[in-house]
Amino acid sequence: MKIEELQQEVIDEFSDFDDWMDKYQLLIDLGSEQEPLPEQYKTPQNLIDGCQSRVWLQADYIDGKVHFQAESDALIVKGIVTLLIRVLSDHTPDEILNADLHFINDIGLTEHLSPTRSNGLLAMLKQMKLYAMAFKASSPKGAIEVAQ
Questions:
Q1: pLDDT at 147 over 70
Q2: How many angstroms separate the CA atoms of 72 and 90, rounded?
Q3: How buried is 49 (Cβ within 10 angstroms: 0-12 exposed, 13-18 middle, 19+ buried)?
Q4: Which of 37, 51, 99, 107 is catalytic?
Q5: What is the pTM of this model?
């Protein structure tokens, strides 16, 4: 599924709720449903700088696509990173780098986050794009495969 289609799915899911308390609950539920990050990836180098809570992000390059896994020790932040993974994971570096991630604004997330959570969201996005850039630079034809 294309990034744009995945964004629309998220927008549709959040449009079912008018109250932001319900939307926060949806974020918490999404984070709770996420598979836990294997302990081997909970390393200092996978911690995202700029997040008030701890967020670990693991990226692997498999068959020309970037696969993300993450975890956070804060429930809402875990839901946010789950949304980012849902939209960006398993796409090519170019698709990730060229994506206009409008769903964040469209669901009202940026205006309903505290400044520290907004900074964390930007830090997560930045790190995901940095991984995409690194994988793109290391493999001009996307032929590298990383075993999990």
A1: no
A2: 20
A3: exposed
A4: 51
A5: 0.90
Cα 119 from chain centroid? 14
Query: Number of folded domains in the chain?
Result: 1
**51 tagged catalytic:** yes
- 25-69, pLDDT tens digit by residue? 999 999 999 999 999 999 999 999 887 789 999 999 999 999 999
CATH number assigned to the domain comprising residue 61? 3.90.1010.10
Q: Which helix (H) or strand (E) holds 31?
A: helix 20-33
Cα 29 to the center of its chain, rounded Å:
16
39 located within any domain:
yes
- Helix, coil or strand: residue 90: coil
Measure CA 97 to chain center: 13
